[in-house]
UniProtKB/TrEMBL annotation:
<dbReference type="InterPro" id="IPR011009">
    <property type="entry name" value="Kinase-like_dom_sf"/>
</dbReference>
<keyword id="KW-0732">Signal</keyword>
<dbReference type="Pfam" id="PF07714">
    <property type="entry name" value="PK_Tyr_Ser-Thr"/>
</dbReference>
<feature type="transmembrane region" description="Helical">
    <location>
        <begin position="47"/>
        <end position="69"/>
    </location>
</feature>
<dbReference type="GO" id="GO:0004672">
    <property type="term" value="F:protein kinase activity"/>
</dbReference>
<dbReference type="InterPro" id="IPR051824">
    <property type="entry name" value="LRR_Rcpt-Like_S/T_Kinase"/>
</dbReference>
<keyword id="KW-0472">Membrane</keyword>
<protein>
    <recommendedName>
        <fullName>Protein kinase domain-containing protein</fullName>
    </recommendedName>
</protein>
<dbReference type="InterPro" id="IPR000719">
    <property type="entry name" value="Prot_kinase_dom"/>
</dbReference>
<keyword id="KW-0812">Transmembrane</keyword>
<dbReference type="GO" id="GO:0016020">
    <property type="term" value="C:membrane"/>
</dbReference>
<keyword id="KW-1133">Transmembrane helix</keyword>
<dbReference type="GO" id="GO:0005524">
    <property type="term" value="F:ATP binding"/>
</dbReference>
<feature type="domain" description="Protein kinase">
    <location>
        <begin position="127"/>
        <end position="379"/>
    </location>
</feature>
<dbReference type="InterPro" id="IPR001245">
    <property type="entry name" value="Ser-Thr/Tyr_kinase_cat_dom"/>
</dbReference>
<dbReference type="GO" id="GO:0045088">
    <property type="term" value="P:regulation of innate immune response"/>
</dbReference>
<feature type="signal peptide">
    <location>
        <begin position="1"/>
        <end position="21"/>
    </location>
</feature>
């Protein structure tokens, strides 16, 4: 298709030719030539009239065509960046764009208390190094004291668009879904480039530091505490996996398990979680994500019992442990020696190792669900004289949320495997 300026030029030539035709093909001249008739007119005046008409037509068309088109082009060019941005934006797992930022903040304020940066800066002593707890990939964590001597942990998020998306994601999950084994969120702050999340302070830190204490530390976890921690983590994951709105943690490890003053575990680091609506509608990819969570729980369970750090580069030991050919008796030889007390806990240790091996089965479809794992771990705790009747019905409340109805699971005829 010819460019618009060329079309205008061709249109101009056409109108001029029409004008010439009008001046040169006057009917009175034709009658004069054919019949010898003579009229009082001037050829020059006809020619001038024709070209005046042509010129007026050209100017009118040029003004009406070129100038509005030019204005429209300028307006359209101004709109191009935004339209391209919207059209070229690709869907993401969880993406919070600037256009709906205020709406998101408004929704969050209905779920979580919004706090000012000034108050949090004061509570942390201007983010003093003495209040520094630790640093992760997403930000720094500080201990803070709010009014009424309320101890909190404040995470100051690094300034990154990718982390901003995760910031909103974590707040939405923690604000909507509350559970006794999910870390409680107390508030948030978003001002200018500052983004902070306020959690309830966990005085016993994370599980990793308890399982792998430094040389100068005297931290120890007895078997009773370890099995309670494993049960609490399983209860929290079962609740996340078996709700109407399913949440996959996707990054489960001992460092993201926090412990309160009673060593009750709290699952944290939910900013990278993946969520979907209903277990009946999940696709194979989503099912794989759930099975991956179960696998990671199995690795964590081995870490709790064996005392080995599977996330360090000890590939030979890791491969030996995580292959289905490894026998439970071989695993038992690698158990943390502090757990072998000769008080009849051997049967429980063997049972837990069996559960862990089922979680890391090389065939994902053969792995148990988190609900099944939770039931089995609870049953292991009842071995020996800890339960009067192993076949009694036990009501297990795994949900403590104001937003979703409580979910009770009934275990009947408990099997010890």
């Amino acid at each position: 298709m010819a460019p618009k300026p060329i079309l205008v030029f061709l249109l101009l030539l056409y109108i001029i030719s029409v004008g010439a035709a009008m001046s040169g093909n006057d009917p009175r001249r034709k009658l004069e030539e054919e019949h010898g008739m003579r009229f009082d007119y001037s050829f020059n005046s006809g020619f001038i009239i024709g070209y005046i008409f042509s010129l007026v037509s050209v100017v009118t068309i040029f003004i009406s065509y070129c100038f509005p088109w030019s204005d429209f082009k300028k307006i359209n060019e101004k709109k191009t960046p935004l339209s391209k941005t919207l059209l070229m934006a690709k869907p993401r797992r969880i993406c919070y764009q600037e256009v709906n930022k205020q709406s998101l903040i408004s929704d969050l304020e209905k779920l979580i208390t919004r706090m000012s940066f000034t108050s949090l800066k004061k509570a942390t002593g201007s983010f003093d190094k003495h209040n520094f707890i630790g640093m992760g990939k997403k930000g720094k964590l500080y201990k803070a004291k709010l009014p009424y001597n309320c101890l909190t942990a404040v995470k100051r998020i690094h300034n990154s668009q990718h982390l901003v998306d995760q910031f909103f994601s974590e707040l939405m999950i923690l604000g909507k879904f509350k559970h006794m084994n999910i870390v409680p969120v107390l508030g948030f702050c978003i001002e200018s480039h500052e983004k902070l999340i306020v959690y309830k302070y966990m005085p016993n830190g994370n599980l990793y530091n308890w399982l792998h204490p430094m040389n100068h530390e005297s931290k120890t976890l007895d078997f009773h505490s370890r099995i309670n921690i494993a049960i609490g983590i399983a209860r929290g994951l079962a609740w996340l996996h078996h709700n109407n709105f399913i949440i996959v943690h996707s990054n489960l490890c001992s460092s993201c398990i926090l412990l309160d003053k009673n060593l009750e575990p709290k699952i944290s680091n939910l900013e990278g979680s993946i969520s979907f609506s209903n277990i009946d509608d999940i696709r194979s990819t989503e099912k794989h994500l759930i099975q991956s969570d179960i696998y990671k729980f199995g690795v964590l369970l081995l870490e709790i019992i064996l005392g080995q750090d599977f996330y360090m580069p000890k590939e030979t030991f890791k491969e030996r442990i995580l292959h289905s050919s490894t026998s439970i008796s071989t695993l038992y030889n690698a158990v943390d020696k502090s757990l072998i007390s000769g008080r009849g806990d051997n049967a429980k240790i063997f049972s837990i190792l069996g559960i862990a091996c089922s979680c890391i089965d090389q065939v994902p479809d053969q792995r148990p669900t988190m609900l099944q794992i939770y039931k089995r771990l609870l049953a292991v705790k009842k071995i020996n004289n800890c339960m009067e009747d192993s076949k009694a019905s036990i009501q297990i409340d795994i949900s403590t949320t104001d937003f979703i109805d409580d979910i009770d699971f009934e275990i009947t005829e408990v099997e010890i495997r």
